């Protein structure tokens, strides 16, 4: 078993995933549409850390859209989302909202999440602290015609 991301449950276009953290038995509870259930998984491999790419500044979060195995999306605290595609850091950011983001300490662009139907609707959401107040904002964006660049509007 690969000690990477493990699919735990799937209902339609909603899939819960976990990251295996070590050998042994792990119980996972997932909730979909107000109902919850648990599943037990057995991790039989020893996970290890490996350097994926250099050239990032204050990376906070790493994710990928559903069913997209060629790209990793990295959130940088200052307000930039970069893509690592097939092991290579792309030169053009996926999203740059640094002009909107108050960063430093525990503030900044905190996360990105892809709509479960991202492959069809291109929608994703970001969570950040805004300038100048530092209030937390959640904003919806869409991908542009180029799948490696978001529409900043």
List the helices and strands and how they pair.
Elements: E1 5-11, E2 14-19, E3 24-32, E4 35-43, E5 59-63, E6 71-76, E7 80-85, E8 88-89, E9 95-96, E10 109-114, H1 118-121, E11 123-129, E12 136-143, E13 150-151
Antiparallel strand pairs: 1-2, 3-4, 5-6, 6-7, 7-8, 7-9, 10-11, 11-12, 12-13
Short description:
This protein is mostly beta strands and 153 residues long. It contains 1 helix and 13 strands.
Work out the oligomeric state of the chains in this entry.
single chain
Order of helices and strands: EEEEEEEEEEHEEE
The residue-averaged pLDDT reads: 81
User: How many separate helices?
Assistant: 1
Q: What coarse outline follows from CA principal-axis ratios?
A: globular
Cα radius of gyration in angstroms: 17 Å
Estimate the strand proportion.
over 45%
Number of strands: 13
**Helix content bin:** under 10%
What distance separates the N and C termini?
41 Å
Unreliable runs, pLDDT <50, ≥5 residues?
Answer: 1-9
Category by helix and strand content = mainly beta
**Largest sheet, described in full?**
5 strands, antiparallel
Describe the structure.
The protein has one helix at about 120, and strands spanning about 5-10, 15-20, 25-30, 35-45, 60-65, 70-75, 80-85, 90, 95, 110-115, 125-130, 135-145, 150. It is mainly beta. Strands 5, 6, 7, 8 and 9 form a five-stranded antiparallel sheet that branches. β6 and β7 form a beta hairpin. The longest helix has 4 residues, at about 120. Mean pLDDT is about 80; it is low at about 1-10.
């Amino acid at each position: 078993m690969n000690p990477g991301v493990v699919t735990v449950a799937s209902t339609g276009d909603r899939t819960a995933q976990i990251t295996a953290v070590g050998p042994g038995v792990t119980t996972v509870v997932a909730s979909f549409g107000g109902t919850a259930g648990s599943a037990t998984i057995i991790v039989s491999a020893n996970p290890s850390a490996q350097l994926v790419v250099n050239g990032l500044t204050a990376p906070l979060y790493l994710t990928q859209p559903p069913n997209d195995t060629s790209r990793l999306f990295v959130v940088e605290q200052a307000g930039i989302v970069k893509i690592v595609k097939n092991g290579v850091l792309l030169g053009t950011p996926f999203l740059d909202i640094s002009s909107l983001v108050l960063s430093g300490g525990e503030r900044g662009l905190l996360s990105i999440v892809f709509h479960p139907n991202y492959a069809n609707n291109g929608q994703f959401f970001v969570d950040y602290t805004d300038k100048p107040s530092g209030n937390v904002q959640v904003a919806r964006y869409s991908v542009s015609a180029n799948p490696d660049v978001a529409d900043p509007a």
